[in-house]
Design a protein that fits this description.
Radius of gyration: 14 Å
Shape: globular
Oligomer: single chain
Structural class: alpha/beta
Strand content: 25-35%
Helix content: 40-55%
Order of helices and strands: EEEEHEHEHH
CATH topology: Nucleotidyltransferase, domain 5
Largest sheet: 6 strands, mixed
CATH architecture: 2-Layer Sandwich
């Protein structure tokens, strides 16, 4: 069983979710506030200490045409810093449209357009973790973590 902590990188908030490879599902956690993309590193450390993940996944928001985006570069930089500061294994996950899908899920489930009270960023992080599990299962053919990661 592997525990995976996921981040949906953003400039003002970084969504967070935690999941288990056994079920292939994740749960959203409280997002981390960020200032111009810089999180409270203490908050990141607290999450890593609490959940002791086997892997950290970070969403990489590429453009729809497959080209690199500024946010993808920033997300990679964030992932590199998490790895450098805490020595955890990192996997980037293509997360095009997860924020859109997360907002749509909030509208569908709660019938609201104001996302203030809902952790849309963490729902996106949940989708990123679950996407990682789904891709790992397809690649390995047996579920769980892909040995290539």
């Amino acid at each position: 069983m592997a525990t995976v902590l996921g981040f949906d990188y953003g400039l003002r908030r970084i969504g967070v979710a935690v999941g288990q490879s056994v079920t292939g599902t994740a749960n959203p956690l409280k997002p981390i506030a960020a200032r111009d993309g810089v999180p409270s590193w203490q908050a990141v450390e607290q999450l890593l200490t609490e959940w002791q993940p086997d892997l950290v996944v970070v969403g990489e928001p590429g453009n729809m045409d497959g080209s690199d985006s500024d946010m993808a570069r920033r997300a990679r930089k964030f992932a590199n810093r998490v790895h450098g500061r805490f020595g955890v294994r990192i996997q980037l996950v293509d997360e095009r449209l997860t924020s859109f899908a997360a907002k749509q899920e909030v509208i569908d489930q709660h019938g609201v357009q104001d996302f203030g009270e809902f952790a849309v960023d963490s729902i996106a992080a949940q989708m990123i973790v679950e996407q990682y599990f789904a891709e790992s299962q397809q690649t390995s053919g047996k579920g769980g973590e892909d040995s290539r990661h």
